[in-house]
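Supplementary Methods S3. Input chains for the assembly prediction are listed below.
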Amino acid sequence: MTQPSWQDSSYGSMARAALWLEAEVGEGNIFTKHQLREAFPDVSQIDRRLRDLRSYGWQIHTRREDASLRQEEQRYVRKGAEVWLPGNAKAKPKASLTAAQRSKIMSDDGFLCRSCGVAAGDFYEDGVSTAQLDIARKLVRLLDGSTEVQLVTECNRCRVGGRGRTVDLGQVIDSARSLEPLEKEILAGWMQRDRRSFGDLEKLWAAYRALPEESREQVRNVVLGEEESHVSGSASAMLW
Ligand SMILES: [Zn+2]
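Predicted structure tokens for the full assembly:
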């Protein structure tokens, strides 16, 4: 589907600003406030409309997020929801969350960054900087095909890095559905504990892997031997 023109004044200012970013700036590129105002001389609050796009998953960095930018520069990092399409600009999440809403989301997320698993105040692997948790907006493609902004706890590093632009809920559910029963059981266990734990299978594998070859062979003989006799057993049972 082709995008409408950013000059089409039948769209709202925010949608036009989004279309302008796509058509004139392009992901990853820098623009200035001056260029933005020049493109929209008739819209008095165009800076603000552009900022509003962040609520729809658009990532636009200023000097605050990207120290390589100059004062007047901003970088169009990632596209968000296609706000020019009917329905996509509705249900705007509140621009600012109350303290109670923030702590509810963080509590639901176990006070962990959902992208990398770091907890507030933990050191990153560099051993120098500590993690700060914040609320990030994620674009989620729902089962009916529409896109919605949902809120999730992320550390500052992951939030700025903007991992995963749109999450496809249907794809995740389909993959989970197509798992073998044993795999599904293991996944369900991780979900209930909200962490990936090492089950008996992984522990056994680690113990086997660490054995000297003579001993590995012995274990193999037992496991593979039993597998074979099991298969031939059931095969002969079928023949009967
Ligand atoms: Zn993180």
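The two ends are 61 Å apart (CA to CA). The chain has a mean pLDDT of 85.
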